[in-house]
Amino acid sequence: MRKKHLPFIAAASLFAFTRAHAQFADSVVAYSSGTGVSAGFTNPGMALGAPSQVNPFGEGTDPFNPPYGTNQIVSLGAGGLLTVQFNSPVVNDPSHPFGLDFIIFGNSGFVITNGDFSGGGITDGSLFSNNAGTTRVSVSLDNITYYTLDPARASVVDGLFPTDGTGSFQRPVNPSLTNADFSGQGLAGIRALYGGSAGGVGFDLDWARDGSGNNVSLAGINFVRVEVLTGKSEIDGFAAVPEPASWTLILFGALGLSSARRLSAWRPTLSRFPFARRS
Description:
With 279 residues, the chain is α+β, with helices and mostly antiparallel strands. 19% of the residues lie in helices and 24% in strands. Helix 1 (6-22) packs antiparallel against helix 3.
């Protein structure tokens, strides 16, 4: 391998490492189950890492068949809370799809109304196992100061949109879709509306508000807190929406240009030595 390629490879490796750690929640900071919690579903570690693609019996998760195992979801009853940390920041970027910066996955599913549970199910858009109550989502950079996401914009955690394990966990669903949009749809129709997403409810860091209700500008955060005010929510995972492809190319190009300039600066020095090999 020629040495002139090494800086480019190093840059790519560094970027891949950073992105891998920014994808999903890395650790639990705090957990309180609250009241009315589902028995046996109180391990907060189930909210870490990638959301579930397969159920305990080897069935693929989809909007009719959400994750439900004790080794997949954690339950929060009324008054309960869960705080998780991302080792790398979740970035506030308006160019993310629909402007959404992170997604929370739950346990809700679409009700099958035509009685076909063998693969030809049709829904009327109603949900089961969803939280019909209210939740509050807050974010922080330092785990000290938290900002609540505008409740007028933030959807309830563990509602729309049920998980589809075949989609991308880092691509949000169009938030303008409602239950009514899924009425009469089978699995293929639901996936078409999802547009390649794995579902979940998306959140925008631009919705952050301080204690007085004033807008707060956040470049990024490392902590997400979910509080269940009423009802009950199950959580399967947290995902950061990835940076746009253009951002990746800009970063990679900048690192490559910088490396190329350093190599050009080294070349005259190396040429003074008779044993130096030219590439």
